[in-house]
Design brief:
This protein is an alpha/beta fold and 261 residues long. The protein has seven helices and eight strands; from the N terminus they run H-E-E-E-H-E-H-H-E-H-E-E-H-E-H. Strands 1-2-4-3-5-6-7-8 form an eight-stranded mixed beta sheet, with helices on both faces. Helix 4 (109-125) crosses helix 5. It starts with a helix and ends with a helix.
């Protein structure tokens, strides 16, 4: 009997190991116009069939370890993930150059949309992607971006902006939004003025967009970025409570959006 139990335990262990998640990361080169970009695809290879999929738009220094970490976290939840490269292969500026690079796209929303749509096309063509279940998330610069992606009329079921800019440069573009919008905002963020928040909400309401704005008390800009430090007086700082709460908010948003995986 002991021998049989030992054998059964060994078999169960082997089966469990074969079903264990294996997160696979693949660097993907693609083009947006004439520009070569380099993104990252991440998926759990234990998953089969078509999967709900998420596009990630990076913060102002370009595709970094932070977005790669988030891609892994999403893959562990069962999503098929592609982290985009808006700036182009090898363009990974640090402050103050990062501000100048991000500014190119914030002042040229057409170009910004083109870069995001090129990345979305890569995700949609991935064999793991369920094209009817695609969403996008973005951080800071990318938080601004995913709302802009939605305004482009892109076929995404929803977008999640983490501490992104909430200005409405073209308010009538809200009518192009086909999915839901979740904006996760630091209540004390000095870089997002009250007028921008009001303009964003008016745009969403006028266009009858299904949206939700969540503000986290005590959180400033970049509240999900550990590299931002913990000094709120600088205007950008990590806030563990807001980071965890916003991630949970996103998870619940996706569960409502996609249903069970």
């Amino acid at each position: 009997m002991k021998t049989q139990r030992a054998l059964l335990f060994t078999v169960l262990l082997a089966v469990s190991g074969s079903l264990r998640a294996e997160i696979k990361e693949t660097t993907v080169e693609y083009k947006s116009g004439d520009v070569v970009c380099e993104g990252l695809h991440v998926v759990d290879t234990a998953k089969t069939g078509k999967l709900p999929s998420v596009l990630i738009i990076h913060q102002w220094t370009g595709l970094s370890e932070n977005e790669k970490m988030r891609a892994r976290m999403l893959a562990e939840l069962g999503y098929n993930v592609f982290a985009a490269d808006i700036y182009g292969k090898g363009v990974r500026p640090q402050p103050p150059e990062a501000g100048k690079e991000a500014g190119k796209y914030k002042t040229d929303r057409k170009l910004y949309r083109e870069r995001m749509l090129s990345a979305l096309e890569v995700l949609n063509k991935n064999p793991h992607t369920d094209a009817a279940k695609v969403a996008a998330i973005g951080y800071c610069f990318g938080g601004t971006g995913v709302i802009e992606l939605a305004r482009s009329g892109a076929l995404v079921k929803g977008v999640v902006s983490f501490h992104g800019g909430l200005d409405s440069p073209n308010p009538t573009d809200g009518k192009n939004i086909k999915g839901k919008v979740l904006a996760l905002h630091g209540a004390d963020d000095p870089f997002v003025p009250a007028k921008d928040i009001a303009a964003f909400e008016k745009e969403m309401q006028d266009a009858k967009v299904d949206y939700k704005l969540v503000s986290y008390p005590g959180a400033v800009h970049a509240f999900t970025q550990k590299a931002a430090g913990n000094d709120n007086s600088k205007g950008a700082a990590y806030n563990e409570a807001a980071d965890k709460a916003s991630w949970e908010e996103m998870k619940q948003f996706f569960e409502r959006l996609f249903g069970s995986k």
